[in-house]
């Protein structure tokens, strides 16, 4: 994948939204996001048919706009929606297993510290999600803040692998993450809770 595709990476599930997720995605696409991840997870998240149904609509919107559509964690949903890729955390399905079944799909992996990085099959993934950059209230079980320094460490260890920072990123601190060497920034609440989505996406 082209690293520049990660530049403005919007992550969202219905549990992050206080208005219609489809209209939020539409506004974000119009404003210039470069990648989208459907992350229906945590308190209040949809399950089963409702999760699929929203995913299907979001997937269609991304296909129409030619925006990469990534599914978080749920391999069956990724398959059913014919998503462009899947993003997994350390305790989700194994990267090796996913790669052997889907040789050509985009796989993203979250890494939060050196031990995770050392133990990860980085050669099998297309990009790394590194965080949390800053304090986040969106992910209740987030690891301790690693900060933009963590981007530098990961980029030094794997200069060829695209890296996207995540966690507490908003227009005022996004540049710091990019200056640390990230290829992009991934945000949830900065966009889902924005009074003016277009302004926030452009400012990022
Ligand atoms: N992963 P917000 S932090 C989904 O550190 C997620 O791996 C993280 O939400 C990690 O942009 C996080 O609202 C939540 O802070 C990001």
Structure in words:
The protein has helices at 21-31, 48-65, 75-80, 95-101, 114-119, 148-157, 174-179, 189-192, 197-203, and strands at residues 8-12, 35-38, 68-72, 85-88, 106-111, 127-130, 163-166, 184-187. The chain contains 9 helices and 8 strands. Strand 3, helix 3 and strand 4 (85-88) form a beta-alpha-beta unit. The chain has one domain (3-203): TIM Barrel (Alpha-Beta Barrel). Helix 1 runs parallel beside helix 2 and helix 1 packs across helix 9 (197-203). By secondary structure, the protein is α/β, with parallel strands linked by helices. The structure holds ligand 3NM. Its EC number is 2.5.1.3.
Task: Throw out a few tags for this protein.
204 residues, alpha/beta, single chain, eight-stranded parallel beta barrel, 37% helix, binds ligand 3NM
Q: Write down the overall geometry.
A: globular
- Taken as a percent bin, the fraction of beta residues is 15-25%
How are the strands ordered across the major sheet? 1-2-3-4-5-6-7-8
CATH C-level class: Alpha Beta
Radius of gyration: 16 Å
Helix and strand element order: EHEHEHEHEHEHEHEHH
Residue stretches low in confidence (pLDDT < 50, at least 5 long) are none
Q: How helix-rich are the residues, as a percent range?
A: 25-40%
Number of helices: 9
Bound molecules: ligand 3NM
Classify the secondary structure makeup into a structural class: alpha/beta
- Under CATH, the topology can be stated as TIM Barrel
Query: Quick one: biggest sheet?
Result: 8 strands, parallel, barrel
Taken together, the total number of domains comes to 1
Q: Name the CATH homologous superfamily.
A: Aldolase class I
Q: What is the residue-averaged pLDDT?
A: 97
Would you count the extended β strands for me? Answer: 8
CATH architecture: Alpha-Beta Barrel
Distance between the termini: 22 Å
GO molecular function, one term: thiamine-phosphate diphosphorylase activity
Pathway: Cofactor biosynthesis; thiamine diphosphate biosynthesis; thiamine phosphate from 4-amino-2-methyl-5-diphosphomethylpyrimidine and 4-methyl-5-(2-phosphoethyl)-thiazole: step 1/1
Cofactor: Mg(2+)
InterPro entries: Aldolase_TIM, ThiamineP_synth_sf, ThiamineP_synth_TenI, TMP_synthase
């Amino acid at each position: 994948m082209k690293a520049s595709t990660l530049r403005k990476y919007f992550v969202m599930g219905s549990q992050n939204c206080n208005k219609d997720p489809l209209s939020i995605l539409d506004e974000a696409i119009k404003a210039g996001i470069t990648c989208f991840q459907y992350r229906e997870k945590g308190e209040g998240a949809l399950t089963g048919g409702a999760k699929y149904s929203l995913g299907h609509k979001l997937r269609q919107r991304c296909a129409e706009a030619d925006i990469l559509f990534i599914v978080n964690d749920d391999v069956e949903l990724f398959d059913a929606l014919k998503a462009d890729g899947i993003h997994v955390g350390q305790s989700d399905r194994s990267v090796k297993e996913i790669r052997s079944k889907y040789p050509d799909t985009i796989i993203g992996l979250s890494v939060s510290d050196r031990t995770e990085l050392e133990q990860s099959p980085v050669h099998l993934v297309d990009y790394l999600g590194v965080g949390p950059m800053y304090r986040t209230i969106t992910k209740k079980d987030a690891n301790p803040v690693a900060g933009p320094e963590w981007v530098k460490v990961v980029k030094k260890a794997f200069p060829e692998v695209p890296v996207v920072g995540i966690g507490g990123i908003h227009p005022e601190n996004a540049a710091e993450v990019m200056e640390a060497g990230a290829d992009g920034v991934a945000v949830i609440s900065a966009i889902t809770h924005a009074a003016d989505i277009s302004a926030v996406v452009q400012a990022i």
